[in-house]
Amino acid sequence: MSSREKILQKIRKALAKPVPSPFPAQDPNAVIYPKPGDDLAVLFAREFTRLLGRFAYCADEQELARQISALVAEKSWTELYCADEALKKMLLTKGAFEFSTKALADSHASVTTCEALVARTGSMVLSAALPEGRTASVYAPVHICVARTSQLVWDIADAIQFLKQKYPGGLPSLISFATGPSRTADIEKTLVVGVHGPKEVYCFLVEDVN
Fold it and tell me: pLDDT tens track of the chain, all 210 residues?
């Protein structure tokens, strides 16, 4: 019998005699983190910046383009990557900078959209269904995320429900929750930022037009 077959046999035996639930009276639908009365945008900004993210509020798309233009000029970025053609067109029309034609790996920063923003954890929800796919938010040294106020949700469960409503035919093959810049403290418990992903993460939150 191969190792794989041995493992499967053990799994079958375990499933044949399931272990009783240690908390049978627990309600799986109970709300663990009640939604506070504060504005979700304020809560997200607080958590996002606490985790070393850079947050900016924009009243409209014109202000968004102006703020990104100022950031690009301040940082002297010349290679800006964006795979979302609609976002790129909007920013090029209203902004004062150009996007690069180079590959993502050769870019100074990448500009993406997102699926949602989770206020409680300060997380950006990304998926493989977005135009930028799986890589744009990870491989560039700087990630710039553009989101709308209508994409704000309170908790992770709300984000999953939000995605189920957006993709009724089935969830994307990859869903990730990006919470601030990449970090690790594996070596001597010393915090190092930007080891497995972007060193800097920006979120520009744009007010939806009613």
Answer: 789 999 999 888 888 887 777 777 777 777 788 888 789 999 999 999 998 899 999 999 999 999 999 999 999 999 999 999 999 999 988 877 889 888 888 899 999 999 999 999 999 999 999 998 888 888 888 999 999 999 999 999 999 999 999 999 999 999 999 988 766 666 666 666 656 678 899 999 999 876
Q: Residue 85 contacts by C-beta under 8 Å, 6 or more apart in sequence?
A: 131
Residues 205, 41 contacting (CB under 8 angstroms): yes
Which residue has 């010349």 as its token pair? 78
Q: Give the CA angle between residues 133, 118, 144 to the nearest 5°.
A: 45
Q: How far is CA 86 from CA 90, 118, 137, in A?
A: 6, 24, 17
Give 195's DSSP letter: S
* Nearest CA-CA partner of 44 in 162, 124, 112: 124
Secondary structure letter of residue 66 according to DSSP = H
What six digits make up the tokens of 158?
């709300």
Measure CA 22 to chain center: 34
Could you tell me if 108 and 82 are in contact, meaning their C-beta atoms sit under 8 angstroms apart?
no
Per the structure block, which two tokens stand in for 46?
């607080």
CA distance 72 to 193: 21
